[in-house]
Amino acid sequence: MKKSDSQVQEDVMEELVWEPSVDHADIGVSVHDGVVTLSGYVKSYPEKQAAEAAARRVAGVRAIAEDIKVRFSTQPKTADHEIAKRIVDVFTWNVLVPVNDISVKVEHGWVTLGGTVQWAYQRDEARKAAGRINGVIGVTNLISVRTAPVASDVRERILAAFKRQSNLSAEAITVTTEGNAVRLGGKVNHWSERGIAERAAWAAPGVTDVTDDIIVAI
């Protein structure tokens, strides 16, 4: 009885685990019509040959496409699973990133982030943190922000921010929302006041975009 590709894949993976001269942790196995593709990294050329030999002796393997690379211990660890682990570790250490709310996928060095967070800054911080990891060639940020902002809530945050500082008034500032976007308008007396209003808007739950149309009186 002919083996299915999934059964051949499972058998090859088990054979690599069983072979004592092969560290299977960094080796990937895929199968299509009985053709086995080996990918990933090993520590030496003999280990690379041993991995290929282990795959060849599995029943049902028709051919092998071998794409294993030799990577010495002194070289940086840039396998996809190693990159993913370092990203998760960095998220765990970063108090600005809710690691339990974010998913991480790495494919050929390209990182895809998913999940839902409460604040826009958490989404942005996750993207920046992932992009700093060695071996990452790009980041697709699919993290969404949980709730849409309410105009009254944004305005209250701006008012509160102004009240914490002397001689500032937010009475002339207008706030409108559309979905997760906030638009600020009106007039203030100083550039610093404009900056305070914008930062307060970004601090509101659910805000993913802020358009600052506030005019500074001259």
Automatic annotation (TrEMBL):
Coiled coil stretches, renumbered: none
Alphabetical list of PROSITE patterns matching this protein: BON
Alphabetical list of InterPro entries matching this protein: BON_dom, Lipoprotein_DolP, Transpt-assoc_nodulatn_dom_bac
BON domain boundaries: 4-72, 79-147, 150-218
Source organism, top-level taxon: Bacteria
Pfam families in alphabetical order: BON
PANTHER family assigned: BON DOMAIN-CONTAINING PROTEIN (PTHR34606:SF15)
Name of the protein in question: BON domain-containing protein
Species of origin: Sphingomonas parapaucimobilis NBRC 15100
Organism taxonomic ancestry: Bacteria, Pseudomonadati, Pseudomonadota, Alphaproteobacteria, Sphingomonadales
